[in-house]
């Protein structure tokens, strides 16, 4: 049988590979050969590094600190609710304070920066129903830009000021809705502010079978009146340019929602410039969530 040892060809001359004292070769190369190789790689890597730094520098020069270089044009932003619950479900028991305290706490924290005192301190009182335009004049930046007051008190029954539980205890919960920020977006024209409407969500219960909880949703109240996102809060110029920006909110209060049953709700934006998503983008300009308020009879 062939053995590995036997396969080795003996050339007769056995030169040590690691260090050859006869030719002064180290790992098969002389000192000058090694030197050239090292020099080559040194120059090569310095060149590569230089290229990298240069392209990075040129790229950064083209970026603007204050606004994104690339942004999809006129996409309708998504909407979000507060409190969000777990998986967009607001579930609680009117008799169990702990079960809705977390929602009230979330809203308290969220609305803290909207306190009238802070709004008056940080922001301007703007003329409503007009865009608050603060363009830069050419290269001269008009920064930082001012923002408009959104007083917590404009949310009235849903402000948490008069009713510390935001209606949760009475089975008339408030849900806050916000439109995701898009820099430069103009959400309405001809002085018409976009507004939110909520209703029963159409959902699938089987193959080709749809259902909606229209009878269960009850009457709704919107704050500010008509559920508008006033035009004065737009356009948004970005976090860096508009330091004290307070995102406008709409609160929806469920005045007579059915208890002890799931209610699937969908809220959407109504605007004369933004389109709500169709089949292609279900989340554009709309948000849906589930409410289930348990209230034991005794
Ligand atoms: C905001 O107002 C609420 C209710 O009026 C109050 O409890 C809270 O302490 C205020 N927060 C700040 C930061 O002023
Ligand atoms: C916000 O509230 C303060 C007083 O709390 C009031 O002076 C101010 O006009 C209000 N701002 C707006 C925009 O309603
Ligand atoms: C933001 O709020 C701070 C604190 O009240 C205020 O000093 C500053 O002038 C505000 N900045 C802008 C751009 O509105
Ligand atoms: C709410 O909408 C109604 C009807 O469109 C309008 O007459 C009313 O002025 C609006 N209220 C506010 C505060 O915008
Ligand atoms: C509340 O809703 C129930 C049905 O869910 C209805 O019978 C009742 O009349 C409603 N109450 C008011 C004040 O709308």
From TrEMBL:
Q: How does it sit in the membrane?
A: Single-pass type II membrane protein
Tell me the keywords, alphabetical order: Cell membrane, Disulfide bond, Glycoprotein, Ion transport, Membrane, Potassium, Potassium transport, Signal-anchor, Sodium, Sodium transport, Sodium/potassium transport, Transmembrane, Transmembrane helix, Transport
> Which molecular function terms from Gene Ontology are attached?
ATPase activator activity
In its UniProt entry, what is this protein called? Sodium/potassium-transporting ATPase subunit beta
The subcellular localization recorded is: Cell membrane; Membrane
Q: Which Pfam families match?
A: Na_K-ATPase (PF00287)
InterPro entries (UniProt xref): Na/K_ATPase_sub_beta (IPR000402), Na/K_ATPase_sub_beta_sf (IPR038702)
Q: What does this protein do?
A: This is the non-catalytic component of the active enzyme, which catalyzes the hydrolysis of ATP coupled with the exchange of Na(+) and K(+) ions across the plasma membrane.
Please name the PANTHER family in this protein's record.
SODIUM/POTASSIUM-DEPENDENT ATPASE BETA SUBUNIT, SODIUM_POTASSIUM-TRANSPORTING ATPASE SUBUNIT BETA-2
Tell me the Gene3D superfamilies matching this sequence.
1.20.5.170, Na, k-atpase alpha subunit
Q: Which residues cross the membrane?
A: 36-63
Q: One Gene Ontology cellular component annotation?
A: sodium:potassium-exchanging ATPase complex
Family note: Belongs to the X(+)/potassium ATPases subunit beta family.
Please cite one Gene Ontology biological process associated with this protein.
sodium ion export across plasma membrane
Provide the species name: Oncorhynchus kisutch
Top-level taxon of origin: Eukaryota
């Amino acid at each position: 049988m062939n053995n590995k040892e036997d396969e080795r060809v003996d050339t007769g001359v056995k030169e040590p590979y690691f260090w050859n004292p006869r030719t002064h070769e180290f790992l098969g190369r002389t000192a000058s050969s090694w030197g050239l190789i090292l020099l080559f790689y040194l120059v090569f890597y310095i060149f590569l590094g230089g290229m990298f730094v240069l392209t990075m520098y040129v790229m950064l020069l083209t970026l603007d600190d204050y606004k994104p270089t690339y942004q999809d044009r006129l996409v309708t932003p998504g909407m979000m609710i507060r409190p969000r619950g777990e998986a967009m479900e607001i579930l609680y028991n009117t008799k169990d304070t702990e079960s809705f305290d977390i929602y009230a706490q979330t809203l308290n924290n969220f609305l803290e920066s909207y306190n009238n005192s802070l709004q008056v301190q940080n922001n301007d009182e703007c003329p409503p129903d007009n865009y608050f335009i603060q363009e830069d004049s050419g290269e001269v930046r008009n920064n930082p830009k001012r923002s408009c007051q959104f007083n917590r008190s404009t949310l009235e029954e849903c402000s948490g000021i008069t009713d510390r539980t935001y209606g949760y205890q009475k089975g008339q919960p408030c849900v806050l809705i916000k439109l995701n920020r898009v820099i430069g977006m103009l959400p309405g024209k001809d002085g018409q502010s976009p507004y939110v409407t909520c209703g029963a969500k159409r959902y699938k219960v089987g193959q080709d079978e749809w259902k909606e909880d229209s009878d269960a949703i009850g009457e709704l109240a919107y704050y500010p009146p008509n559920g508008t996102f006033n035009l004065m809060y737009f356009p948004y110029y970005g976090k860096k340019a508009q330091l004290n920006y307070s995102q406008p909110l709409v609160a929806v209060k469920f005045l007579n929602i059915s208890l002890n049953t799931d209610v699937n709700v969908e809220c959407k934006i109504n605007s004369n410039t933004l389109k709500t998503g169709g089949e292609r983008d279900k989340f554009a300009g709309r948000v849906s969530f589930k409410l289930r308020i348990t209230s034991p009879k005794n």
